[in-house]
Amino acid sequence: MRAEARSGPIARRRPALASVKRWLGRAFLLLVLLLLARLALQVDWAEAWQALRALPARALWAAAGLCVLSHLFYSCYDLVGRHQTRHGLPVARTAAVSFMSYAFNLNLGALVGGVAFRFRLYSRLGLGPATITQVLLLSLLTNWLGYFVLAGTTLLLWAPELPASWGLAQSVLPVLGAALLLAAGSYVLACFVAKGRPWHWRGHELRPPSGRVALLQLLLATSSWAVIAAICWVLLQQRVAYPLVLGALLTAAVAGVITHVPAGLGVLEAVFVLLLSRHIAQGELLGALLAYRALYYLLPLLVASSLLLALGVAKKKGRPKPPL
């Protein structure tokens, strides 16, 4: 009876929390859709196309090099899971799966690319569901650990000026930044304290990495996010301060996750225009973002698709799989 009495309020509270989250998500999606509609009506797309064509070759080549560097950083995320689970797949093959999953994740969304695609590839390579789940969770932890550190630092030191229509007090941002840094620091500290003892989450057992590996996760992910912002900064030809570009990118990333729009299509552009249009003309801003999408999203997708096709052809003809 006591157990039932204790569980009653909790059981009633859960549907209420789920309802609040659902309505907040819908409200945020509506806000983003309104921003997109406003953007589509107000932007001179001919100017954006002209700005794209006017980008100097040195900026495009520099951005392309940074794209390669960022994808290399992300390709190392699954190596953390390889180290923890000791699954035995070669380093190059594990990194290739991470790269292909990320490319499809960027263009098709997290559930298709980040989760389903990883499970399919790793299953074909002989890994079991429990091992794949651990690799996936550690990769997600790595990614968001870096996000929390950079977002927290940005909100503390270079908090962006939010539009008044957002209804959010500017004084809240440093507090949010400190909370994000505290969360990231708590994870690293917990890894040092746990010393390999397993954590349990939703029925899954996850053996945390050592403190040193947690610091490596932090270094990889912060470097990856920082390089992505540098790509946009270079394509904007350094006309906007780097911290502002970083803040816009991190805001757009969260907006894309909340709205579940594949590839954040339109969401990225709307957030950048809203936060940076006072510093640079909208046409130039959108031209740079079009180049960013082509270099960071579409070209890696073509490479990943070619790799996947090569693997499929090799399997059908019974030839050894090409080295990854």
Description:
The structure is a single chain. The protein has 324 residues and is an all-alpha fold. It has one domain. Helix content is 77%, strand content 2%. The protein contains twelve helices and two strands. The protein has helices at residues 2-42, 45-53, 57-75, 77-85, 91-108, 110-124, 129-157, 172-194, 211-235, 242-259, 267-276, 282-316; strands at residues 199-201, 204-206. A two-stranded antiparallel sheet has the order 1-2. The longest helix has 41 residues, at 2-42. It starts with a helix and ends in an 8-residue tail after the last helix. Mean pLDDT is 80; it is low at 1-7.
Short description:
The protein contains twelve helices and two strands.
Question: What tags apply to this protein structure?
Answer:
2 strands; 12 helices; about 325 residues; mainly alpha
The portion of residues forming beta strands comes to under 5%
Number of helices: 12
Task: Give the spatial strand order of the biggest sheet.
Answer: 1-2
Alpha carbon gyration radius: 21 Å
Q: SSE order, as H and E?
A: HHHHHHHHEEHHHH
Structural class of the secondary structure composition? Answer: mainly alpha
Question: How far is the first residue's CA from the last residue's CA?
Answer: 58 Å
Uncertain ranges: 1-7
The helix fraction, in percent, is over 70%
